[in-house]
Amino acid sequence: MRGVTYTEGAQIDAPDALLDTTFPDPVPVGRDLLVRVQAISVNPIDTKVRQGAYKQGCEPKVLGWDAAGTVVSVGPEARLFKPGDAVFYAGALDRPGSNAAFQCVDERLVGAKPASLDFAAAAALPLTALTAWEMLFDRLDVATPVPGAAPAILIVGGAGGVGSIAIQLARQLTDLIVIATASRPETAQWCRDLGAHHVIDHAKPLATEVAALGLPGAPGFVFATTQTGAHLPQIIELLAPQGRLGPIDDPETLDVMPLKPKSLSLHWELMFTRSLFQTADMERQHAILTEIARLIDAGRLRTTLSETFGPINAANLARAHALIESGKARGKVVLAGFSD
C-alpha cells in the first residue's frame, strides 16, 4: 500500500523528513479494525514524534493519528463495527499511524463518523475532541465547582486545534464563563465564533487581562494548551485558591512548588495514555467519540477544519507540519485521499 514514512529527528525542510513509499497492507488482529483511510488531519504530536520527542517504537514508521475512513475488515474479537462502517478515530501512539492507505486500529478507540460530516471534516476532530473532553471532564472535573471561585475557565491557546473544540464543549456542556486567549484579530474572532464569552491576548500578562474582565471572583479552572511554562506565574496569580490547572503541552521544566500556597492542583492530560497502558477503561474513547458524533449531528458542535492541503503525500504533509511548527495554525489542517 501507499503511505508516507518519516525520518526520526529530521527537520521538516530536510529532503528525507517525509517520504512517499509503499509497504505491505496491515492485517487486523484481536479487536482491530482495518480501515481504508480517506482523510487525515495533522496535530502537534505528529511534529513532535518526527523530531524524536516521543519514540513510536514500531515499523513502518508512519505518522498520523487523526483519521476518518471506511472499515474494510475486522479482527476475530471485534464486536463494535463491521466492514463498510464509516468511522473516525485518533489511534495509538505506539502503532503505525494514519498517513497510509490502510491502518489497523483497536475498535475501542474508534467512533462512528458523524453522519452530517464528510470524511475531511470528520478527520479534523478525533484527537482534539478526545483531548479536550478528557481534560474537561476526566481530569479537571469542571462539573465540580471550586469553592468561592468564579464559574469560569481560561483556555490558553483558544484558536488551536484543542482550544477550538474545548471552547465548544465548555459552552455546550457546562455553565462556565469561557475565556479564550488569542493574539491576532483573526484568531480572536475565530474563538468568538466558536462561543468564547471573552477573548484576551496571551501576549499580555494573563492575570491583568483576566482581572480587567470584571468576573465575580477568580476563575476556578485553567486549560493550558500551549506555552504553559512561560505562562505559569501568571496562571498561578489568576487562579482562585484550590483552583485546577490542566496542561497538555511539553514544557522543558515545570516548577510546581509555587502552586502550593493556593493549594492549586495540576492535572496532566495525554490522550494516548489509555491506549499506551491498555487501561481498563480504554473503551471510554469509543464512548466519547460516539457522543461527539451525536453532538455534531445535533448541530451543537461544529468541525474545526480550517484548511485542506490536498491529497495525502509527503509534500503536502511537509507543508502541514511546517504550518503547525510555525505556531500560526488556526483550527485543523486536513488532507484527503491519495494522489493517483
Architecture blueprint of SSEs:
Blueprint: E1 2-6, E2 18-22, E3 32-42, H1 44-51, E4 66-74, E5 86-89, E6 102-106, E7 110-112, H2 119-123, H3 126-139, E8 150-156, H4 161-173, E9 177-181, H5 185-194, E10 198-200, H6 206-211, E11 219-224, H7 228-238, E12 244-247, E13 265-266, H8 273-276, H9 284-297, E14 305-308, H10 314-326, E15 332-336
Parallel strand pairs: 8-9, 8-11, 9-10, 11-12, 12-13, 14-15
Antiparallel strand pairs: 1-2, 3-4, 3-6, 3-15, 4-5, 5-7
Helix pairs in contact: 3-4, 3-9
What does this structure look like?
The protein is α/β, with parallel strands linked by helices and 340 residues long. It folds into two domains: 2-129 and 278-336, Alpha-Beta Complex (Quinone Oxidoreductase, Chain A, domain 1); 141-266, Rossmann fold (3-Layer(aba) Sandwich). 29% of the residues lie in helices and 23% in strands. The chain has ten helices and 15 strands. It has helices at residues 44-51, 119-123, 126-139, 161-173, 185-194, 206-211, 228-238, 273-276, 284-297, 314-326; strands at 2-6, 18-22, 32-42, 66-74, 86-89, 102-106, 110-112, 150-156, 177-181, 198-200, 219-224, 244-247, 265-266, 305-308, 332-336. The strands form three sheets. Strands 3, 4, 5, 6, 7, 14 and 15 form a seven-stranded mixed beta sheet that branches. Helix 7 links the parallel strand 11 (219-224) and strand 12 (244-247). Helix 3 (126-139) packs across helix 9 (284-297). The mean pLDDT is 96. This is Zinc-type alcohol dehydrogenase-like protein. One of its GO terms (molecular function) is oxidoreductase activity. Belongs to the zinc-containing alcohol dehydrogenase family. Quinone oxidoreductase subfamily.
